[in-house]
Design goal:
heterodimer; A: 94 residues; alpha/beta; B: 345 residues; alpha+beta; 4-stranded mixed beta sheet; 32% helix
């Protein structure tokens, strides 16, 4: 006898993400670095910031750490970067 | 009356249905029970939920976990309808911000979802809390844990190699569900410690590595047994990240604690003090960077942030001198154990 069986899967919803326009140049921008707490991620991000400042004319940088690598940046970081930064660099490294 | 909205497939028999689910990539590698209209409704009616009811929303995945999809996967895992309230509560816990789904589900660290069921429902559903605790042989343990993994896979998209990047994983990723032995335990049950009444039912979820067994047949004192436990734990998977740890005490070790009158807090405090590791040792074994400095010999790192981060469960066979500890995944700041009440009609 024929059977009717059902699909167990779900599709993720489309997630609208509002991107700010990319800056035309990195000259004089203020950089926010999101450190993810893994070993050496601070060193890597600071090295990137130094290159952007020296070779691309970025003005300054600040670095703040998330509470953990598996969680999003917390509100204080987002508020501070919204107020004081023009570009943000984030990444997950192991 | 509401209708099921999931896509339907016509097959000629059960064997063809089982192969369809393999072909679609919808199993954990074992055959599933093909979900039919009747069996899905049986699950939904056991909890009084309409198919479209949202049980949780996984923010990182932007996925709404509906009762219909939970019911389908619960049938597939081999559950009876009376298991469904446990599954619903566990899915609520998966979506709790304190559990932090994204980290433990995705990490190369390879954790599984360890579940401890407390309250009368554990005995009514015959969820094993005794012999062969983490092994096979009990339908409820096997099917409830399996249902959660199938929901993670099929509904939340936690597919090995894609959004589940575990380097190794472990057997608990098939199923990792136990009950606490509330009858023989010398202590208040886990859910009572967490604010529930004894007659309430609850499930605790914990992003967990595999159980590590230790043996102590020489000691008749808590200090003796726990010194062995701490020696095993001191340099263990969670050393650097300070996750929570579950301590599972089986029958003979429960008796040792009971005869000495040690409370769960006594056990926690002893383990907190005796699992500290010096920074020097952490550097020598390469879990902390840098050269050993003289002050590192006396700078102590605790295994967990606070004594309360040792979660104590009485379970396992009455005979034998084995107990186990289970390191949590990552760190407490990324994922914490969560307890939810199980609601029944």
């Amino acid at each position: 006898m024929a059977l009717q069986v059902f699909d167990p899967t779900t599709e993720a919803k489309e997630q609208p993400i509002a991107f700010v326009p990319r800056p035309e140049s990195l000259r004089n921008v203020r950089i926010g670095l999101v450190e993810n707490t893994k070993y050496n991620s601070d060193k890597l991000l600071l090295r990137i910031a130094a290159i952007l400042e020296k070779e691309y004319g970025a003005q300054s940088h600040i670095i703040r750490s998330k509470h953990g690598s598996g969680v999003p940046a917390h509100k204080e970081i987002i508020d501070e970067y919204t107020a004081n930064c023009d570009v943000v660099i984030a990444g997950v490294g192991d | 009356m509401a209708e099921l909205t999931s896509q339907r497939y016509e097959v000629k028999d059960m064997a063809e249905a089982i192969e369809l689910y393999y072909a679609k990539g919808w199993t954990d590698g074992l055959p599933v029970v093909p979900p039919t209209e009747n069996s899905i409704w049986g699950m939904l009616e056991s909890v009084g939920l309409e198919p479209e009811a949202e049980i949780t929303f996984i923010e990182n995945r932007q996925v709404s976990v509906t009762a219909e999809k939970v019911a389908i996967n619960t049938v597939m895992a081999g559950c009876k309808p009376e298991y469904m309230p446990v599954i619903v509560a566990a899915v609520e816990a998966l979506g709790d911000a304190r559990f932090g789904y994204h980290g433990p589900a995705t990490s190369t660290g390879g954790s599984a979802i360890f579940m401890v069921v407390n309250g009368p429902i554990a005995r009514e559903l015959n969820i094993n809390c005794g012999d062969n605790l983490f092994g096979p042989g009990w339908r409820a343990n096997a099917a409830i844990g399996r249902a959660i993994r199938l929901i993670m896979r099929n509904v939340i998209g936690t597919l090995p190699g894609l959004l589940d990047r575990s380097s190794l994983g472990h057997g608990g990723k098939y199923s990792y569900c136990i009950a606490e032995n509330e009858t023989d335990s010398p202590w208040p049950p886990l859910h009572v410690e967490r604010g529930f009444r004894p007659e309430q039912n609850a499930v605790t979820l914990f992003a967990a590595m595999a159980p590590h067994q230790y043996a102590n047949q020489l000691s008749a004192t808590p200090e003796g047994v726990l010194t062995t436990a701490c020696a095993h734990m001191r340099i263990s998977a969670g050393l650097r990240g300070q996750p929570q740890y579950v301590l599972v005490f089986a029958g003979e070790h429960q008796v040792v604690m009971a005869q000495a009158g040690w409370s769960k807090d006594d056990v926690r405090q002893f383990c907190f003090e005796h699992t500290k590791t010096s920074q020097a040792e952490m550097k020598r074994i390469n879990v902390m960077p840098g050269a050993v400095q003289p002050q590192d010999e006396t700078a102590m790192h605790t295994l967990v942030e606070t004594p309360q981060d040792f979660i104590i469960v009485a379970a396992g066979g009455r005979a034998g001198v084995q107990s186990a500890y289970i390191p949590g995944w990552g760190g407490k700041r990324s994922s914490q154990s969560v307890t939810k009440e199980i609601h029944r009609l």
